[in-house]
Request: fold
Amino acid sequence: MNYRTGDIDSRRLVNLYKEHISDVSSTNYPGVYPGQNYEWDLDDFKNVGGGKRLRECTNSLEQRQKNLKVDFQYTTNEHVEFDLVGVDASIANALRRILIAEVPTMAIERVYIYNNTSVIQDEVLSHRLGLVPLYIDPRLMEDAPADYQTQSTDRNTVVFSLNIACSEREDAAPGETDPEKLYHNSNVYASDLEWVPQGEQVKLKEDPPRAVNPKILLAKLRPGQEIAMEMHAVKSIGRDHTKFSPVATATYRLMPHIQLLKPGDRYDESKRRVEKLEMANMEQAERFRDAFQEGVIEIKKERGKVFVRVKSPRRDNVTRRILELPEFDNMVRLGRVRDWFI
Reply:
């Protein structure tokens, strides 16, 4: 989701200066602006977004900006980034907490140890196994049974086994010190967990349950040591235990806002706002670009002149380094959009 800096209402901005920050508190509440009622309403939140009414507002741009928008930037197997626009920080934080504690996932709940002669204690090893993220679609499974001894079935429990022993390598070079080259199975990884299909679970063989990261180290073994155990994974949520949380972390930050200003009356910024700013030469343009994170500012040549423009404000971490350079004094205004969460 992109935006033009001039389209952001000043009421939505947290302004950043060289040594201080202003306009931190929101003013979107009843009685602040004549003719505009920002009282909370659940129906408006569902239908319009944001939950604060603008019954008598005639500014169509401001009305659109108040609509709730969710725009996914990219999605991978391990990361998701999306924009949440038009809501208060309390709503954004509620969604963050829901991601952490209310989204179901699968994790190892019970461990049956038959043999463990490694140096890691049974309880510690069981705890480590429970924290291993599992690649299992929780929608295919039922919730964890209340009584696992009598109610565990192939529809609510996924079984894994681990049977591994360490032995010496006969082909190890003399003087070798690397345990990986000296011994077989010197390290026990999450990839050593073997899925044991039960009943109807055979249909999952095309995409079998497994550890998300096969390189997670579980234990170290030396010749004569072995581990034999069975593990049962069930479905639950992070509110029950953190091992069921589907995210390692869920954070948000405010969308950076970078406004370029041409020379003029410093007390009337509205007439100085521009989409591109002319530089004296290429060297000055490069210094301006390098004051931001990579990819935030781009340099363009047009008719023999050098310009800089804001390309991707979301990449900036708002270090305010540009405000420390005297040659760019009063040429840029920094801020963050209060109701635009990344």
Remarks:
- Residues 261 and 331 are 5 Å apart (CA to CA).
